[in-house]
């Protein structure tokens, strides 16, 4: 049996997504800026995708800018709004558990003279609203906080955060990295007070290399790429039509019967947590049920290095992550695990299991059986 539990790194594309991507690449391959029939057909795909995605968020299609993925969306949201609004102030607020594409964008902005306050989190990965309120200064122009933490699945109180920000200063922009949240939660940027929202397609069973940034039409932001003026001048360059159309199909499928899909995923997550508790020396870092994201379980395995366990599972065709896949090429102690107070001896012994629409209870049973077999052996080896 093969068990793929690394869906927060990337997902297997849905069949209808694959079909439309192949069709556009082989049949409807026109440039959407061209004036002939093939060009107009390609343009229709991008318009339809924008309408589908805008419909899932209840925003206007013109507020959706297609990007190359989540990292580009985060870079554009942070750097281009900060630069466009620097006359209003140079202070930004974020947290200590953000994704590298946010953290490194903020590091770049610090080099450009901006000041950044990084909020700490509690034992469950949540920021404290009173600390956010205290951090806001007259020169604060932007707050960036992730919706769902990519390592432990903590869900931040987005609407409450926005209320604190806007009460202090309605001009402060609120960016939300929703790369692990879109497709899993019903998100309403207008109602929740979100000004910018980053999403990646391959986290929702869509293609890699495509994503979008929602930008409220009132937001002052600079273009990321200059050129032919595509996407209303916000991001020049020929659109990735197959990817964009595939993302639109994936979004439509994920938000059809959405409640049932998420209850099924929560049931899988809770089942995994309950079965992990059968193994000695395992600490689960994610909350069960509705208290955290439906697709992520973080667990620490006392006495075994995560990389050793990851490869031992891989030999049995079980695929997991030793943290955020995007950071796995740069091994370092996880800021998220340190932030929630994971014991030092468990920091390098933590795995992430993440689910998608294809996972089953039988795959979890297989994974737990293998873990029960491996753990005593690996612990003896590690001690030796």
Automatic annotation (TrEMBL):
Keyword annotations from UniProtKB, A to Z: Iron, Iron-sulfur, Metal-binding, Pyridoxal phosphate
Cofactor(s) needed for function: pyridoxal 5'-phosphate
PANTHER family in the record: CYSTEINE DESULFURASE ISCS 2-RELATED, CYSTEINE DESULFURYLASE FAMILY MEMBER
Pfam families for the chain: Aminotran_5
The keyword DNA-binding appears for this protein: no
Organism, scientific name: Lacrimispora sp. BS-2
PROSITE patterns: AA_TRANSFER_CLASS_5
The name this protein goes by in its record: Cysteine desulfurase family protein
């Amino acid at each position: 049996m093969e068990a793929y539990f690394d869906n927060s790194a990337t997902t297997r594309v849905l069949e209808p997504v694959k079909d439309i991507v192949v069709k556009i690449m082989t049949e409807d391959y026109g440039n959407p800026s061209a004036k002939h029939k093939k060009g107009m057909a390609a343009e229709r795909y991008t318009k339809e995708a924008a309408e589908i995605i805008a419909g899932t968020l209840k925003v206007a299609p013109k507020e959706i800018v297609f990007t190359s993925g989540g990292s580009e969306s985060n870079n554009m949201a942070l750097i281009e709004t900060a630069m466009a609004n620097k006359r209003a102030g140079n202070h930004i607020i974020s947290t200590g558990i953000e994704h590298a594409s946010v953290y490194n964008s903020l590091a770049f902005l610090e080099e450009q003279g901006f000041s950044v306050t990084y909020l700490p989190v509690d034992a469950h990965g949540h920021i404290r609203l009173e600390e956010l309120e205290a951090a806001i200064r007259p020169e604060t122009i932007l707050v960036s906080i992730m919706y769902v933490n990519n390592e432990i699945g903590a869900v931040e109180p987005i609407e409450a955060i926005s209320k604190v920000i806007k009460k202090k200063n309605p001009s402060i922009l609120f960016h939300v990295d929703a790369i692990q949240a879109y497709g899993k939660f019903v998100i309403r940027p207008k109602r929740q007070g979100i000004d910018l929202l980053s999403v990646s397609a391959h986290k929702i069973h869509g293609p890699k290399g495509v994503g979008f940034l929602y930008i409220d039409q009132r937001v002052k932001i600079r273009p990321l790429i200059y050129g032919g003026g595509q996407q209303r001048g916000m991001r020049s360059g020929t659109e990735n039509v197959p990817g964009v159309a595939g993302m639109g199909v994936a979004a439509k499928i994920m938000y059809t019967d959405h409640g049932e899909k998420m209850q099924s995923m929560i049931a899988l997550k809770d089942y995994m947590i309950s079965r992990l508790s059968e193994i000695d020396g395992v600490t689960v870092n994610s909350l069960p049920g509705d208290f955290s994201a439906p697709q992520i379980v973080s667990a620490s395995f006392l006495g075994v290095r995560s990389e050793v366990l990851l490869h031992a599972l891989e030999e049995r065709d079980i695929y997991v992550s030793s943290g955020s896949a995007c950071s796995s090429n740069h091994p370092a102690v996880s800021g998220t695990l340190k932030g929630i107070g994971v014991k030092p001896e468990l920091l390098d012994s933590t795995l992430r299991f993440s689910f998608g629409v294809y996972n089953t209870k039988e795959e979890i049973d297989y994974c737990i059986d293998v873990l029960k077999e491996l753990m005593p052996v690996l612990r003896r080896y590690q001690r030796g």
